[in-house]
């Protein structure tokens, strides 16, 4: 496995991985409106902004992109692992890398938003203080997720 910072020319393939993972992992948990919200939150434009203002990492297994994640200040976001590759430690390795980068930036606490399907994963790797969030969308439907934190030092 190759773990490294993403390049600007990888935005489309990162977005493709994220879209595929959202459709696969969220389809039984979230409404179509909620899935649209997540897709927009992780759009090519948003990925590009994360690259400009923070760090986006990618993980390749040979030539195949299998994971990604981002760090903006003390916030981790956009951590997605190819559904076929989940459960192999890729997500935990991405999180450790992003947490270590946050420590180098002087962060003592990290924050992230946790989707319902990923709750158990983040709890297992030491995140706590899960506060329920209900975001009301423009069509009146709601997206439920959590806000969580982890002390790094």
List keywords for this structure.
single chain; 153 residues; alpha+beta; Aminopeptidase; 7-stranded mixed β-sheet; 37% helix
Give the overall average pLDDT.
96
Helix-strand topology string: EHHHEEEHEHEE
Proportion of helical residues: 25-40%
Please state the second-level CATH architecture of the domain at 2-107: 3-Layer(aba) Sandwich
Assembly classification: single chain
The best one-word shape is: globular
| Cα-atom radius of gyration | 15 Å
CATH topology of the domain at 2-107: Aminopeptidase
Report the biggest beta sheet as strand number plus sense, adding barrel if it closes: 7 strands, mixed
CATH homologous superfamily (4th level) name of the domain at 2-107: Gcn5-related N-acetyltransferase (GNAT)
- Approximate strand percentage: 25-35%
């Amino acid at each position: 496995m190759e773990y490294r910072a993403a390049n600007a020319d990888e935005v489309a393939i990162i977005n493709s991985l994220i879209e595929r993972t959202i459709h696969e992992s969220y389809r039984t948990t979230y409404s179509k409106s909620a899935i649209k919200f997540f897709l927009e939150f992780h759009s090519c434009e948003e990925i590009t902004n994360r690259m400009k203002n923070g760090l986006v990492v990618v993980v390749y297994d040979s030539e195949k992109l299998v994971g990604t994640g981002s760090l903006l200040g003390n916030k981790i976001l956009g951590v997605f692992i190819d559904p076929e590759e989940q459960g192999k430690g890729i997500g935990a390795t991405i999180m450790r890398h992003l947490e270590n980068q946050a420590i180098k930036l002087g962060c003592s606490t990290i924050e992230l938003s946790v989707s319902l399907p990923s709750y158990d994963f983040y709890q297992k790797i030491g995140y706590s203080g899960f506060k329920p969030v209900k975001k009301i969308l423009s069509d009146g439907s709601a997206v439920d997720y959590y806000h969580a934190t982890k002390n790094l030092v």
